[in-house]
Amino acid sequence: MNPIKKILSPYGARVFTSERVRRWRDFPDRVKQRAHKLHPRVTLFHQFDDPYSLLALEASAQLVDRYNIDFELILVNDPLAAGHSAEQAATQNWMRYRLHDARRLALVWRMEQTIRVDMPSTLAVEASSRCLAAAPPSTRAGFALKLTRAMWSGDEQVLSQLLTENKQGSQEDVHRMLLSGHNERIERGHYRAGMWEFNGNWFWGLDRLQFLEEDLTRWKLAKGDQSVHGEWYTPTRAPRLQAKALDVFFSFRSPYSYLSLARLNKLQQQYGSRLNVRLRPVLPMVERGVELSPEKRNHILKDAARIANKHQIAFGYVRDPLGDGLRRCLSLFYFAQDKGKEAEFVMSVMQGIWGEGVSINSDRGLRKLTQRAGLNFDEARHRSFDDSIAEQMQKNQHQLELMGLWGVPTFALTNDQNQLVDVFWGQDRLPWLEYGLMAPLKM
């Protein structure tokens, strides 16, 4: 990279992820909306066989009742279904995990009765898609909710009635509808189903509903005081968990790993340290054969920034750690582990990468972050990325894959016999760990 770009990149990232800048960008549209008394549009990109889409669509019905908005539904399919190699393997793992996770998500949102089958049949999805393709655009949202509910509840009688009583389009109509939805999603800058889009900002399902409602309220679109999130989200319904150890699989290149570890550190301070937390670093996905699209990269940065802002975690001055510095950090991690300071080292490095724009590809940057963790850099720098470290990294990755997961952060809970109790993927599941595991451990 050009030296000037290296210097400016953290500041560019800060502007790109700034909440203040985002609000200034929204301001002209807000003025126009209020001057002309328009109802802004909220769009849901929906996928019939995605349980997260089902839950988002259920919540959308509540949004329409509580906010002065126009609601649009666009049907899409899985863009990775025809992927290859590592990307396809990750997608298959994701499809297995998401059902388990969506059922738990439905529980804490008091929607547990909505998911009663493992997966709608291919025939049901195809027939429902043909019906939706033939439906007038103005009725698609309500019709899609009826079809999706029937498929995921396993109510074959209701589904059969809906398919019989409504006109069905051709396979060509379905192809055109899905292609249009796919192109629209790309044009607006995203890649996934179960996503709401509002004024150029994206919100992934129930986990981001609070942020969407905050935007709608800021635009003065709320009809009352009660939000969907405030009424329906009940994290205290998370199942109680019995575990003695928590393995945290993380990557230095993952902003969500940074946010998770920062929040987990606060939880440990609040609830005590009776739970044994073990850090398990893995290589970034790009080094494991899974490419990161520009759409995904941009969304992750913006999404991580608003989460960091909510939890008051330093974020925005970002310096990409990819390169030799990343492997040096992994080597230094095991040096810090030998000294009993791996948690302090990881937090220092993560904060430097994601919140301070410190380059870990320079001795100057690494020295600063290592010494802040209470370690001697001149002693630590001699630890190289040798075969033993490479072997440990492969072991961590293998453990992740055995659990059917691939991404980070992942939280694996084990009992006294080191048997797996449960596994959670993503920083959004930390409240479940808090209410299901840590709160009962409070001293």
- Biggest sheet record: 4 strands, mixed
Average pLDDT value? 90
Strand order of the largest sheet: 2-1-3-4
CATH topology tier name of the largest domain: Glutaredoxin
User: What level of helicity do the residues show?
Assistant: 55-70%
Structural class of the helix and strand makeup? alpha/beta
The CATH architecture of the largest domain would be 3-Layer(aba) Sandwich
CATH class of the largest domain: Alpha Beta
Tally of DSSP β-strands: 8
Order of helices and strands: HHEHEHHHHHEEHHEHEHHHHHHEEH
What would you say this structure looks like, in words?
The chain has 443 residues and is an alpha/beta fold. The protein has two domains: 194 residues, 3-Layer(aba) Sandwich (Glutaredoxin); 201 residues, Glutaredoxin (3-Layer(aba) Sandwich). Helices cover 56% and strands 10% of the residues. The protein has a four-stranded mixed β-sheet with strand order 2-1-3-4, sandwiched between helices. Strands 6-5-7-8 form a four-stranded mixed β-sheet. β7 and β8 form a beta hairpin. α5 crosses α8. The radius of gyration is 23 Å and the shape is globular. About 1% of the residues have low confidence.
